Amino acid sequence: MHVHYPQTDIIGAPADGLLPWLENYTFPAETRFAQPAYAAEVANVFFSELLRHGVTTALAFATTHPASVDAFFQGAQKRGLRMISGKVLQDRHSPDGLRDETEQSLIDSETLIQRWHGQGRLGYAITPRFAPTSTDAQLRGAGELAARNPDTWIHSHVAENRDEVRWVRELFPQARSYVDVYRGFGLLRERAVYAHCIHLDDADRALMRDTGAVAAVSPTSNLFLGSGFFDYEGAERIGMRHGLASDVGGGTSFSPFHTMLAAYYVGREGQTKPGLSLAPSRLWWHHTGGAARALGLQGVIGTLQAGTEADFVLLNPKATPLLARKTERAQNLEELLFALIVLGDDRVVDQVCIA
Ligand code: GUN
Ligand code: ZN
């Protein structure tokens, strides 16, 4: 539900937290995507990695450069993949070579929507990076663009890190909360996907629920960057829809198994005591049918029901000696699914079928 293809090569970059990680690794790496050939090369590696790990659809950040979006969609089209992406909107608090220009950024987004949205299996996401790196004018323009194109996606980050939340409070003193900043600019609606959603209160969760916006839980990223723990109990209690995401390169793995295991650890920790023991079938659902539903793609992908598109994986539960022993002893489906979560990785993925 949330990943950055231009961050493929910066997996595992250590930093004290989100903001220094962005400044020291992420922004410099993304600056290189002005070059179309480089963007195409990384996109190719990214799609290969996704498929090796059995991931057939992703909602992905590109960079601010329109060429990075073209490279991504061309690669996806060549492979017949159902993919969603968009040009990142980022017109302040960003280095030269990455920062875009307000008016031009909106014109470029509109052009890319016309070029790519609904072309075969491709979809466009209007992508303000996060509130601190967009001016009010850019966020307002993004909201207007989203209103004019109601079946596009909106894709951003919210309430990931405490320093980030503090910064947003300084920049947008009129808003009740970080989530409320996006509401004010018309950026909460169906098909709006917000990564992280950690430092929320119940009013924020209710606002997400009532507008149809959804949370992309990114547990390996949140553990790696020390951002915090998604509150599964709060999300469930209020009815805020959510699904799973790798968030590479903040996240540490393309593997859904690794993501599900990290989500299990996070559920254990929780923000409530005692933590939850998330059911294996629920974790799988959040990476398949539940994620499809959260993206507004129910009935299209995510299940094996008749009439849906035939993207599926063939998994080998005996891929390693220990998995073979463990899965042989599984007494029921939950135990089998849990064994794959705890011990599985790309070696389990035997075949990947696209369309
Ligand atoms: N917030 C703004 N940009 C980013 C990003 O690239 N990764 C993560 N994890 N959080 C962000
Ligand atoms: Zn992210």
Could you please describe the fold and organization of this structure?
This protein is α/β, with parallel strands linked by helices and 355 residues long. It folds into 2 domains: 3-294, Alpha-Beta Barrel (TIM Barrel), CATH 3.20.20.140; 312-353, no CATH class. Helix content is 45%, strand content 14%. It is built from 15 helices and 11 strands. The strands form 2 sheets. Strands 1, 2, 3, 4, 5, 6, 7, 8 and 9 form a 9-stranded parallel beta sheet that branches. The chain has a two-stranded antiparallel ribbon with strand order 10-11. Strand 2, helix 3 (66-79) and strand 3 (82-86) form a beta-alpha-beta unit. Helix 3 packs parallel to helix 4 (102-116) and helix 11 (256-269) crosses helix 12 (280-287). It is globular. The two termini are 19 Å apart. The model has no long low-confidence stretch (mean pLDDT 97). Zinc ion binds next to loops.
Which characteristics define this entry?
355 residues, alpha/beta, TIM Barrel, 2 domains, nine-stranded parallel beta sheet, two-stranded antiparallel ribbon, 15 helices, globular, binds guanine, binds zinc ion
Q: What is the subunit organization of this protein?
A: single chain
Rg over alpha carbons = 19 Å
Task: Please state roughly what percent of the residues sit in beta strands, choosing from under 5%, 5-15%, 15-25%, 25-35%, 35-45% or over 45%.
Answer: 5-15%
What's the total helix number?
15
What class would the helix/strand composition place it in? alpha/beta
CATH fourth-tier homologous superfamily of the largest domain: Metal-dependent hydrolases
Q: Examine the secondary-structure arrangement and name the CATH architecture of the largest domain.
A: Alpha-Beta Barrel
